[in-house]
Specification:
By secondary structure, this protein is α+β, with helices and mostly antiparallel strands. The chain is built from five helices and twelve strands. The protein has a domain at about 20-150 and about 160-165 and about 225-250: CNF1/YfiH-like putative cysteine hydrolases (4-Layer Sandwich), CATH 3.60.140.
Length: about 260
């Protein structure tokens, strides 16, 4: 398992972020009041747990991280829409799978439980982004749309690939493989045959390939497996009543 947890049960991403940039990933050990299969810090509102419990968990998270404001929680739909968080009022849940921000103190978050969370920051710390990249989102270009929404040239961006289902745990069929290989023959390298009509899929490798093609060369992370790592929620491992964990990024202070 890559990376230890801090005393709050939070994973601190290991990548060379510029000064003033903070990020964190919640786990099942992060303070919360969820019970049963959701225990203990489910942050998803649409996974069979009372909304009051989820909102309490989100309040505990804000306190644990001393967040400057409530994160911008997205209504994620496996698409490619990107929201400018600086133009959204606090408390609104926009329908999108990625967000960007430039103003200090704005907190971006994506919820996952096998899909890939991707955090992005400009090398000078001037802007940040967070994207929810499951296979559908990757296939329709959510990462490319996120990069295009930023003002920073891609060569000056850094990306971190958070916890997602690992290749050894992720068997897919013709639909998933075709969504990538039919338009990019080189993507076949991310798929390994298992049985007729099925392959294992390296989601992180597909994301790296797309980020590189978009001009982002400084890519970190990607060495997790949510299905085999009990610290994280996993839809494949717990399909009926699993929770969601969050990957967050924010600018802690204004640039000098």
């Amino acid at each position: 398992m890559s990376g230890g947890l801090d005393p709050q049960g939070l994973l601190q991403p290991e990548w060379p972020t510029p000064p003033g940039i903070r990020c964190a990933v919640t786990t099942r050990a992060t303070p919360g009041i969820s019970q049963g299969p959701h225990a203990r810090c489910n942050l998803g509102l649409r996974n069979g747990e009372p909304a009051a419990t989820v909102h309490a968990n989100r309040a505990l998270l804000r306190a644990a991280l001393a967040l400057p404001c409530e994160p911008l929680w997205l209504l994620q739909v496996h698409g490619r829409d990107v929201i400018d968080a600086d133009a959204i009022e606090t408390g609104v849940e926009p329908r999108a799978d990625a967000a960007i921000a430039r103003a200090p103190g704005r907190v971006l978050a994506v919820l996952t439980a096998d899909c890939l969370p991707v955090l992005v920051v400009a090398a000078d710390g001037s802007e940040i982004a967070a994207a929810h990249a499951g296979w559908r989102g990757l296939a329709v270009g959510v990462l490319e749309a996120t990069i295009a929404a930023l003002r920073t040239p891609p060569a000056r961006l850094l990306a971190w690939l958070g916890p997602c289902i690992g290749a050894a745990s992720y068997e897919v069929g013709v639909e998933v493989r075709g969504a990538f290989v039919d338009t990019d023959a080189g993507a076949a390298g991310a798929f390994t045959p298992t049985r007729p009509g099925h392959w294992t899929c390296d989601l992180a490798a597909l994301a790296r390939r797309r980020l590189l093609a978009a001009g982002v060369a400084r890519i970190y992370g990607g060495d997790f497996d949510t299905r085999s790592d009990p610290r994280f929620y996993s839809h494949r491992r717990d399909p009926v009543a699993g929770g969601r964990f969050a990957s967050l990024i924010w600018r802690d202070r204004a640039r000098p």
